[in-house]
Here is the input.
Amino acid sequence: MRALFGSLDRAGVVVRFVGGCVRNAVLDRAIDDIDLAVDKPPETIMRALTASHLKSVPTGLKHGTVTALVEGCRFELTTLRRDVETDGRRAVVAFTDDWLEDASRRDFTFNALYADRDGTLYDPFDGQSDLAAGRVRFIGDADTRIAEDRLRVLRFFRFHAWYGRPPLNGPGFDACRRNAGTLGSLSGERIAKELLRLLQAPAPADALQAMACSGALDHWLPEYAGVARLEALIAREDAPDPLRRLAAILPASADATAIGKRLKLSTQQALRLEVMLAAAPAVDVAGGAKAWRAGIYHLGGGLYADRLLLAVDAAGDWRAALALARSWTPSELPVSGGDALKLGLKPGPRVGALIEAVERWWIDGDFSADRDACLAELERLARQT
Here is the structure.
């Protein structure tokens, strides 16, 4: 950071920390990434970095963003901007050197915090007071801010989940309710990203309920089934998982494929959601370690843990079952179709049926049979049939 600030200082560029890194520093929370605001155009920034032998990447020149690479670290530097034109999704911007003008186009008061490297804080909209009160407040007129970017309806609830305390800011909530119907024009990817980030918050239930009450889920997640199962899941999960939490707010009858397509989830995410919502196989917690190992073998440790944590009414020692799912990796069945062919059987359905029968026998024996025992069982079954 010192090298980066030094290179810009020498070029007469004013640079300040901005947004989330300042907000989290004020709260003494972990900082995920560092964003910087500068008062000169991106071309000037790139020349200044080059003059100091620092590498820069023009990641978004149209929007004023340059990425600086300093000793393996990436820092986004964005020129102060004002909106020239907005359509609710994208903005046409012009560069400015007016810090208040840049702050005025941001969404919430505590996201318009700037700081010099010596810690001097610039807070044009009293965001510190809102942070202290757990209040998510739009800058200026809430409807105007939402009209600039309709995704701010979801961001209002997401930031409340992470930084807010009840009750929600009334004018902000009312504006979100008035504008909830406009969310249908956004992309599934943007909606899913905001929803999953909200669900990852330590205690997202209140914000999620408020979002549902506003109508913000009506188009994108009409299957929403409330937060009772989510709250039970949070009470027992060993680590927050937003996709698992998404499954917890859906009914068991929900069409995971349709939801995956609507939210543009990855193939892996959609398949995982389908397994979590499926009626079978049931998780037999009361059956003890033998039943747990069988379940882990069929589903894999990760999916077994998903279904176990979602089965909030399961009787038995679910903590021990979860620990086993996290630590035990089942071995592969010691025999295959090739072993059946060596016995003289012809390729076909009978070979597959025999291997499945041996597998069931192997699982029933709690995976204790070795290859020789499995071969003997395969031969016995082949003679019988």
